[in-house]
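Sample pair:
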Amino acid sequence: MAKSDIDIAREATVKPITEVGAKLGMPADALRQYGPDKAKVSFDYLDGLKDKQDGKLILVTAISPTPAGEGKTTTTVGLGDGLNRIGKKAMIALREPSLGPCFGVKGGAAGGGYAQVVPMEDINLHFTGDFHAITSAHNLLSALIDNHIYWGNELGFDERRVAWRRVLDMNDRALRDTVVSLGGVANGFPRQTGFDITVASEVMAIFCLADGLKDLEERLGRIVVGYTRDRKPIYARDVKAEGPMTVLLKDALMPNLVQTLENNPAFIHGGPFANIAHGCNTVSATKSALKLADYVVTEAGFGADLGAEKFFDIKCRKAGLNPEAVVIVATVRALKMHGGVAKTELGAENVDAVKKGLENLGRHIRNVGQFGVQAVVAINRFVTDTDAELAAIQEYTGQFGVEAIECTHWADGSAGTEALAKKVVEIVDNGGAQFRTLYEDDMPLFDKINTIARNIYGADEAIADKKVRQQLKEWEDAGYGDLPVCMAKTQYSFSTDPTLIGAPTGHVVPVREVRLSAGAGFIVAICGEIMTMPGLPRVPAANSIHLDDKGDIQGLF
């Protein structure tokens, strides 16, 4: 019987985090330790590295996700280990997992097999408390808004247009729509509101895009929390929230240092939704990693149409990052699903289905090329994959001048990514990247939406009713026209219909609603139904998570 991820993690030889930091030249006093195997890196130390030359940034993304799995995080970890294996000074930068999916469907998100980050239980549970700090800061703002209204509403909040909901880092559908302040005069003025999951909070997006504490505080102050009766915006700074919110987040903003199973350094920090936000780890972790290592491997959420596009057009644009290479992860199983094969039939060889599904991979390869960065495909190999199926992928990607490399890191650790690591180094050291964003800052907001819909999704156009277009025009007039656009749509398809697999064309992208994230610095375009507070499945992962007789956690995987 194959070992579970948590069994493999427990058998690992974990080094003191001071030894892991020393591999990057970090002195012990630069670390704020949370036990022996995890730490935050102090800003005092990181500030001293600002004049140091940056390392090379490598993005790991994937084809459109399917229930068959692609293994993006596992590949990120495996590639980081592979680069160290071939003698490079490398580290990885990942997002922190949310408790909601951990107890809902996923059961854990720290890589898998022999390509994991540890301590696996801590990372998936409370870790260093970052998400709790973000939840507290968000809800402090909620409390200050309701308190301001209770004590006379000097700012003139229209209670029907309070735009700030509350958050909780748990899947709980019962909290999606609520009424607060019931119970009489002493409890305030009743109004309808609701909860989102913490990773959907604008505070999370701000946390992940902020470049230092001063920038964090300024961004928090710019959050639009509501409107007056004559539709004038009210900001978080108007209720004097940005100061105390920053105090709650000051320690959380320091990057978290952990290690892979092979004792290589890893930052795990921040974790915004890849739908409603930009789905990348923090700017502070990425920029710090680039000062500490020669090669930094990071990932973006979901497939390249959502994750990579937002990484390039939002994170890299705003943080001044210049990625040097892109790894697109694909599996034979996922390609078969894009080729129309049912999940129950994925074990049998089906080269024709693989070839049909390759149109999805092909579009992602073309899309990445639009950003001026060279790609390589990592085939995350399963034991059921056949040589003929792998050959079909390699022949197809060769038409684009892109190499497809078999990887077995889940089973073999860094030995399974050695070839991929050598190819990535070849791409990066040749210096051929000419990174560019998809659109210019001064392009009108709806034109930005249309550009993404056509150039990335393969749509004929984006459509929106007059109310949406008018709202975008008002934001342009108010000085927000230079913001990038964050597309919120299903991750399962290039279209807004999750059942349209492969690489659909001829579709339209309907924009149902637009939201201003003034603090984060982007406009969210909501296409279709996007859930900001998930529910638990009929049989949640939580049902299997427990302590055994030895006091060890079981059920995380």
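The domain at 445-526 is CATH 3.10.410.10 (Formyltetrahydrofolate synthetase; domain 3).
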